[in-house]
């Protein structure tokens, strides 16, 4: 039997890639370790090595093919004593693989049925190439007829930084692997070439230290954008962020401020376990002196990051690794700014309000679609800025719907949902027809096992159930 | 304001006359100390101050001494609350280092910061009023003893987390390099802070990027109540940058001339683009760690001996008299003038109103 070479996953979140180039042709001999192909993901180009020895019998995927799903057979290698005739039998293999793939969702569906509240496939859905799109335009004040360009969140973030760096030479970006490596998640791709090493600065692995250096530079009047490879590592630096950056303006009686952006992926990626999967939104949102932003769409990522860089204060800009590769329409404007502190109605509705932000929006928007099928029109609010929180927009919605569900991947206790619930009691109690319900990450460290990780995160079904429960349905 | 104007004049004189002796100091063998365990390391052979410098150093140190004594008194009267860390005994360090700086250079330190602010020519009234939490304080009464800043005087605080100012100071130096100006940052910290991790993270980046920063370790021998010997595996703190190839030297931090000479060497090194430099100032605080510390971890004799034989102000005083630079009456007049400044500051800080309640909600965001 020929050996199948499968499309490899090159990162925890990769689901498909482009088969950029074959480096071996049919008939070539390969030994383990030989590079046989180059694969491009949205982040990088990677080489694929042969694991087995033999002769390339057949290349199954043409060079240049886009969107080859992980685990798709891409080549067949003939083993010892096999010749081309073996390929006839082997040709059946890809088909088998497809069958096997097809079985998986069925299994997931069964699990879901067995335990309807724990939608095991939610995470996979959320990571799909086509994220659920808000029904509303990016921003009400975008002129009618503005051209929309589809771009990924990753590209939007880079464009935002690059535009602001062109405009203001006080702005620079620093962090681990931001320059020569082009960004650990390729957010700063191409920036070293354009801006040079004085403004795109690779730091040693030293979060506490470089966060302090960034804050010091900001106290001196520069405008640093400090990238954390993930916010999990920013725990090392949180003293500088809170004690030095957030509090100095107050402690100096308004004399010395700290205009700085701390940005990077926050929360769970996929299968990276407890130490790399924490959502810090609630932590930072607790601190006066900080502005906390967590966008969902590429348009908001761009417009809000530009606003954050221009802001005179310390901004925590929470991105999400799973969203990086997802595409959204972005208005083609010279200077697209989204105001900090304003939530957005991502989908209008009248029966129940669902509030979320960042990746939580994928659950919220999908749940709204499912609810619509059952005749419940959910109004989905994308909070976008967590601090200062746009309470008015939520209250106005609740005045209309009388019901509210919050959705976040972070933990429930002292979470952002808890804060929203408290505000609803303070500001919308008389309009509430049901208690506020929170859908959150489960109260456990993030497990590694695929099934447990799915269980630990919120799911579309949980949001649907929560929305129905506040509608008493 | 009278105070500031009065002391600005001798300072300028001191700076202008410093040039000649600087060259000599540069050539002198720096006390690139052998792994010295002893506290008082001689750091330079060229320890001569001219008359203006001696007078300037004397007055500046005396101002800090009298200010701190008054702050201690106001604390005892309940006018100053919270933490209050006095600088008495360490005056030669900031005064000598400040004499090595020029316009545009920045200073940042930890929580024992009153002396640094006075040395930076910040107004004693504004500092004292901040200690008493009044609206005329440098931070409108919202920062207190440990948190004062002056953009005008290039003083960047005033930081309460042990060691944080080392990374921040490295960032100030980063900004100098980014702007391609020739300013140098002095980042002060204590022997206690010298064991913090971020200090070494900062050393590494400062050397890696050749940042114009001088790290001034004020080794007053106790991190709160723990002696250096009980906290540090190697007590020669000047060599803490060795693994980053940052040059360092131990300096007699009780002798303002030695401090100035070492400061000249270090600042020149940093300003010329060679990167960071470490000065370990071997000094001594006479008072406890803070006002609430009875300092029972050391003997009265130890403190007394230091005061009698190494007091930075007394040493200058003696030299001034011996050299005929000043008479006893001259020095009495200086003391009187300084006391008046300090009394005026205390008066202001006592009578200035507390911040308006509306100030609670200001200065959180710009």
TrEMBL record, chain A:
The keyword Transferase does not apply. Its cofactor is thiamine diphosphate; (R)-lipoate. Heterodimer of an alpha and a beta chain. The lineage of its organism: Bacteria, Pseudomonadati, Pseudomonadota, Alphaproteobacteria, Hyphomicrobiales. This is Pyruvate dehydrogenase E1 component subunit beta. GO terms for biological process: pyruvate decarboxylation to acetyl-CoA. It catalyses: N(6)-[(R)-lipoyl]-L-lysyl-[protein] + pyruvate + H(+) = N(6)-[(R)-S(8)-acetyldihydrolipoyl]-L-lysyl-[protein] + CO2. GO terms for molecular function: pyruvate dehydrogenase (acetyl-transferring) activity. NCBIfam families: PRK09212.1, PRK11892.1.
Automatic annotation (TrEMBL), chain B:
Heterodimer of an alpha and a beta chain. This is Pyruvate dehydrogenase E1 component subunit alpha. SUPFAM superfamilies: Thiamin diphosphate-binding fold (THDP-binding) (SSF52518). InterPro entries: DH_E1, PDH_E1_Alpha_Subunit, Pyrv_DH_E1_asu_subgrp-y, THDP-binding. Keywords: Oxidoreductase, Pyruvate, Thiamine pyrophosphate. GO terms for biological process: pyruvate decarboxylation to acetyl-CoA. Residues 15-46 have a biased composition (Low complexity). Residues 1-51 are annotated as: Disordered. The pyruvate dehydrogenase complex catalyzes the overall conversion of pyruvate to acetyl-CoA and CO(2). It contains multiple copies of three enzymatic components: pyruvate dehydrogenase (E1), dihydrolipoamide acetyltransferase (E2) and lipoamide dehydrogenase (E3). It is an enzyme of class 1 (oxidoreductase). It catalyses: N(6)-[(R)-lipoyl]-L-lysyl-[protein] + pyruvate + H(+) = N(6)-[(R)-S(8)-acetyldihydrolipoyl]-L-lysyl-[protein] + CO2. Its EC number is 1.2.4.1. Residues 60-357 form the Dehydrogenase E1 component domain. It comes from Chenggangzhangella methanolivorans.
């Amino acid at each position: 039997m020929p050996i199948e070479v499968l499309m490899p996953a090159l990162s925890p979140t990769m689901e498909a890639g482009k088969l950029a180039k074959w480096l071996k042709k049919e008939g070539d001999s390969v030994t383990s370790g030989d590079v046989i192909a180059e694969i491009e993901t949205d982040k990088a180009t990677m080489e694929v090595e042969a694991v087995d020895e033999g002769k390339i019998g057949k290349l199954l995927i043409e060079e240049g093919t886009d969107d080859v799903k992980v685990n798709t057979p891409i080549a067949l290698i003939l083993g010892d004593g096999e010749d081309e005739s073996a390929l006839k039998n082997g040709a059946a293999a890809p088909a088998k693989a497809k069958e096997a793939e097809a079985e998986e969702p069925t299994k997931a569906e069964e699990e879901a049925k067995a335990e309807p509240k724990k939608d095991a496939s939610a995470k996979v859905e959320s990571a799909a190439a086509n994220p659920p799109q808000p029904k509303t335009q990016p921003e009400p004040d975008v002129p009618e007829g503005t051209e929309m360009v589809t771009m990924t969140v990753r590209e939007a973030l880079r464009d935002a930084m690059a535009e602001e760096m062109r405009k203001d030479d006080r702005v620079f970006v620093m962090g681990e692997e931001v320059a020569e490596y082009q960004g650990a998640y390729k957010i700063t791709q191409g920036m070293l070439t354009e801006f040079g090493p004085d403004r795109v600065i690779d730091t040693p692995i030293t979060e506490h230290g470089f966060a302090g250096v960034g804050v010091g530079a900001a106290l001196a009047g520069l405008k640093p954008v400090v990238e954390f490879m993930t916010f999990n590592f920013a725990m090392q630096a949180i003293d500088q962020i809170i004690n030095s950056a957030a509090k100095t303006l107050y402690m100096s009686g308004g004399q010395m401020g700290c205009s700085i952006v701390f940005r990077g992926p926050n929360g769970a990626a996929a299968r990276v376990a407890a130490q790399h999967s924490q959502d810090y939104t609630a932590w930072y949102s607790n601190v006066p002196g900080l502005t906390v932003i967590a966008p969902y769409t590429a348009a908001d990522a761009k417009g809000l990051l530009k606003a954050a860089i221009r802001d005179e204060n310390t901004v925590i800009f929470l991105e999400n690794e799973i969203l990086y590769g997802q595409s959204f329409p972005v208005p083609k404007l010279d200077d697209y700014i989204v105001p900090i502190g304003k939530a957005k109605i991502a989908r209008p509705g009248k029966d129940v309000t669902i509030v979320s932000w960042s990746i939580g929006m994928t659950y919220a928007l999908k749940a709204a679609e499912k609810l619509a099928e059952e005749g419940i029109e959910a109004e989905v609010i994308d909070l976008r800025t967590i601090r200062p929180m746009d309470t008015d927009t939520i209250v106005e919605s609740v005045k209309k719907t009388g019901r509210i569900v919050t959705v976040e991947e972070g933990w429930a206790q002292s979470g952002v949902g808890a804060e929203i619930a408290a505000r609803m009691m303070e500001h919308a109690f008389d309009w509430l027809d049901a208690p506020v319900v929170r859908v959150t990450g489960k109260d456990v460290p993030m497990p590694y096992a695929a099934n447990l990780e799915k269980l630990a995160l919120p799911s579309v079904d949980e949001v649907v159930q929560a929305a129905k429960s506040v509608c008493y349905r | 304001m009278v105070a500031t104007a009065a002391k600005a004049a001798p300072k300028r004189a001191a700076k202008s006359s410093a040039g000649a002796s600087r060259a000599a100091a540069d050539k002198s063998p720096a006390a690139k100390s052998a792994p010295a365990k002893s506290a008082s390391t001689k750091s330079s052979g060229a320890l001569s101050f001219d008359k203006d410098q001696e007078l300037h150093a004397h007055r500046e140190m005396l101002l800090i001494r009298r200010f701190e004594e008054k702050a201690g008194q106001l604390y005892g009267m309940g006018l100053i609350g919270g933490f209050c860390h006095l600088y008495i005994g360490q005056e030669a360090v900031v005064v000598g280092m400040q004499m090595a700086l020029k316009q545009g250079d920045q200073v940042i330190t930890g929580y024992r910061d009153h002396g640094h602010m006075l040395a930076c020519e910040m107004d004693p009234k504004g500092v004292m009023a901040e200690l008493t939490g009044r609206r005329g304080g440098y931070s409108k009464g919202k920062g207190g003893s440990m948190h004062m800043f002056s953009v005008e005087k290039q003083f960047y605080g005033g930081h309460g987390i042990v060691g944080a100012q080392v990374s921040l100071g490295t960032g100030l130096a980063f900004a100098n390099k980014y702007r391609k100006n020739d300013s140098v940052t002095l980042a002060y910290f204590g022997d206690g802070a010298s064991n913090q991790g971020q200090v070494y993270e900062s050393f590494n980046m400062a050397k890696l990027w050749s940042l114009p920063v001088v790290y001034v370790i004020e080794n007053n021998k106790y991190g709160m109540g723990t002696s250096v010997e009980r906290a540090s595996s190697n007590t020669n703190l000047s060599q803490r940058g060795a693994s980053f190839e940052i040059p360092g030297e131990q300096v007699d931090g009780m002798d303002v001339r030695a401090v100035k000479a070492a400061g000249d060497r270090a600042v020149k090194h940093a300003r010329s683009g060679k990167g960071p430099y470490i000065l370990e100032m071997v000094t001594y605080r006479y008072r406890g760690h803070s006002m609430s510390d009875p300092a029972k971890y050391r003997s009265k004799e130890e403190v007394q001996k230091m005061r009698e034989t190494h007091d930075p102000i007394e040493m200058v005083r003696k030299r001034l008299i011996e050299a005929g630079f000043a008479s006893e009456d001259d020095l009495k007049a200086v003391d009187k003038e300084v006391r008046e400044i300090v009394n005026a500051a205390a008066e202001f800080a006592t009578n200035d109103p507390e911040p308006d309640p509306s100030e609670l909600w200001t200065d959180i965001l710009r």
